[in-house]
Amino acid sequence: KNEVEQSPQNLTAQEGEFITINCSYSVGISALHWLQQHPGGGIVSLFMLSSGKKKHGRLIATINIQEKHSSLHITASHPRDSAVYICAVIAYGGSQGNLIFGKGTKLSVKP
Amino acid sequence: DGGITQSPKYLFRKEGQNVTLSCEQNLNHDAMYWYRQDPGQGLRLIYYSQIVNDFQKGDIAEGYSVSREKKESFPLTVTSAQKNPTAFYLCASSIMGGVGGAGRNEAFFGQGTRLTVV
């Protein structure tokens, strides 16, 4: 079982819809990152969270440390939001170093 | 400004040649990592290092080599033994605070290198 699980794996939405991507983890963490990767592009860090909630424009990220769960929300989605969104945690004593990635959620927003 | 620099962004090499990807950070992070991503797939760990002069194999270390002679630098060599080297490669670094995670906890990510072997 992966230590960081994301859902859904793939997501298709219509422009304007509210989108939620989930990340659950099974290890103790000190922080969690949400990353964005456009097709053929590099990796961009959207948020780093260790508690609570952060907002940047139409993006909102929340984390519940007790439940070991984080969500990334996109309000009023737009085709330019189409990308792969990746959850990464800084873990205590992770099985391979302390930085562990989820497999990513591929989002397609249709006009 | 502190950050992590991965270069080059795009790299083309002939089959059978070794190639070295650069990763440098000036964040004073102890841990550094290399990941590989194939089209439509997630990131897979190649190697990581948590201290200078020490590194550990990840899931797919075969055909790759690394060194960690300086805290700031963690270059990855894709050797001719790597059967399918064409991929996207990502370098990252991280620091975790002291007991209970107190202090600075952060990870930084390179832009990535797209390696194409022809």
Could you explain the architecture of this structure?
Chain A has 111 residues and is mainly β. Helix content of chain A is 0%, strand content 60%. Chain A has no helices and 11 strands. Chain A has strands at residues 4-7, 10-14, 19-25, 29-37, 43-49, 52-56, 59-64, 69-74, 83-91, 99-101, 105-110. In chain A, the strands form 2 sheets. In chain A, strands 2, 4, 5, 9, 10 and 11 form a 6-stranded mixed sheet that branches. Chain A has a 5-stranded antiparallel sheet with strand order 1-3-8-7-6, with no helix packed on it. In chain A, a hairpin with a 5-residue loop joins strand 4 (29-37) and strand 5. In chain B, strands 2, 4, 5, 6, 9, 10 and 11 form a 7-stranded mixed sheet that branches. In chain B, strands 1-3-8-7 form a 4-stranded antiparallel sheet, with no helix packed on it. Chain B contains no helices and 11 strands. Chain B is mostly beta strands. Chain A binds chain B through residues 30-31, 33, 35, 40, 42-43, 45, 48, 50, 86, 88, 90, 92, 96-99, 101-104, and chain B through 9, 31, 33, 35, 41-43, 45, 48, 50, 56, 58-59, 90, 92, 94, 96-97, 101, 105-112, 114.
Major sheet size, sense and barrel closure of chain B: 7 strands, mixed
**Strand count of chain A:** 11
Q: Tell me the major beta sheet of chain A.
A: 6 strands, mixed
Distance between the termini of chain B: 37 Å
How many H/I helical runs of chain A?
0
Topology as H/E string of chain B? EEEEEEEEEEE
Number of helices of chain B: 0
Low-confidence stretches of chain A: none
Set down the secondary structure blueprint.
The complex is a heterodimer of chains A (111) and B (118).
Chain A: E1 4-7, E2 10-14, E3 19-25, E4 29-37, E5 43-49, E6 52-56, E7 59-64, E8 69-74, E9 83-91, E10 99-101, E11 105-110
Parallel strand pairs in A: 2-11
Antiparallel strand pairs in A: 1-3, 3-8, 4-5, 4-9, 6-7, 7-8, 9-10, 9-11
Chain B: E1 4-7, E2 10-13, E3 19-25, E4 31-37, E5 43-51, E6 54-57, E7 64-66, E8 76-78, E9 87-95, E10 106-109, E11 113-117
Parallel strand pairs in B: 2-11
Antiparallel strand pairs in B: 1-3, 3-8, 4-5, 4-9, 5-6, 7-8, 9-10, 9-11
